[in-house]
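Hi everyone, sorry if this is the wrong subforum. Our group has a chain we'd like a structural model of before ordering constructs, and none of us has done structure prediction before. Sequence below.
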Amino acid sequence: MTEPMFDFEVAADGMGAVVAGIGDDQLGLVTPADISVRELLVHVVGLTEAFRQAATKEAVGRSVPPEVGPDAVLVNDWRTRIPAQLKALVEAWREPGVWEGDTEAGGVAMPAVEMAVVALDEIVVHGWDLARATGQPFAPADKDVTVLMGMLSETPPEGVPGLFGPRVDVPAEASPWDRALGLAGRDPAWLPA
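Answer:
Right subforum, don't worry. Here is the predicted structure as tokens:
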């Protein structure tokens, strides 16, 4: 049986803390992902459930790309739903056997081990996006950054449409987290306008 490569709890708790700090008056703010906080929250509601289902493999063969865009509806209970779904995702990826074989999320199939890293990336990078847009602190765990660097260092410089923007150059002496952000197409120095 394949043992878990990492645990999602610290990343999920980090995103959960940021979500708890978002006020209604901040939903229209722009994020480093170049979409509004509201639009990114819609995405987070969807991805937290999609990646839980990727662990259980219950959506294999029937997952669909997430609803995105300014017309996508943010559920009224997002403040409680996101933390609950994050907790369920953490627990799902701890179950025996979930890291084995192939799985699917958002209409994309890949080995479960790779899907887990994509899920971690989504949670950590979008946690930072939301924190940055709303003026909150965010510091991912070093071990999570190490996992992400393994994947992000292999992405093409021009980015991957729908996943990563083009790489952003960061100074050679930048922290591992800032380097990871640059590889993910984020400017670590990004500030709200």
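For your construct planning: The domain at 8-184 is CATH 1.20.120.450 (Four Helix Bundle (Hemerythrin (Met), subunit A)). Residues 112-134 form the longest helix (23 residues).
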